[in-house]
Amino acid sequence: VGPYVLITPNERRRNQLQQSKLSFAQKELNDLERWKEEHRPGPIKLIPQRLGGKESEAQARQKQQMMLMQSKYQQKHKREEYIKAKKAAEETEILKKKAIQREKAERLEIRKRQQEMQRRETFLEDQYYKTNELLNRLDLCLPKSDSCQIANRGPESTAWSRSHTYKQALREDENRRLEEMKQEQRRKAELMEFKQKQEEEARTRAHQNEQRRVNNAFLDRLQNKTQPNSVYHPGYPG
């Protein structure tokens, strides 16, 4: 550390500076108070006049009471409309979910019926083929009939004719069963289509009714807003 010189403070000079600062601040405060006194506002003088419009105090009180009652009814009506709209939305959502589940159940039932029909058709076809195979084996086991045997109509010819008639009856019965199954499946498909059409129409009508109700409620609220002097009573056709 290098050398340094210590200078003692001048107390007299410090006191003079402090006294000058205090005197300057006091002078500014005195000037501010004098300016406030000079610019103080005077007394207000107004010409007396009648206020409150053309209505009396009783009429004004009555109008205020009516407006308060109307605001309470409007708030109550808004709460009721909100609760109704919320319930309607929840019911619509529940109906939509039920319709989806119903459609899934119907599709599953249709799929089960189709599988059952396919199993029945497969079983009948297999039965038909096995019966034909059995009859063909019986035909092969029978001896060839010549013209004399055909003319005499022996027991072999009678057995062949019975087997041929039985085979033809089986074919006709099988064809009849297949045709009945096709007609039944066609009827079920038509009935399912008719039910789906009815459900779609019912959903469309419900949606239109809900939209009409919401529109009517909106028009009622709009009419109540455009008529501020009328007191709204819920349930009263104003």
UniProtKB/TrEMBL annotation:
Residues 194-213 have a biased composition (Basic and acidic residues). Signal peptide: none annotated. InterPro entries: EPSTI1 (IPR026185). Residues 33-57, 194-238 are annotated as: Disordered. It comes from the Eukaryota. This is ESIP1 protein. It comes from Nycticryphes semicollaris. The lineage of its organism: Eukaryota, Metazoa, Chordata, Craniata, Vertebrata.
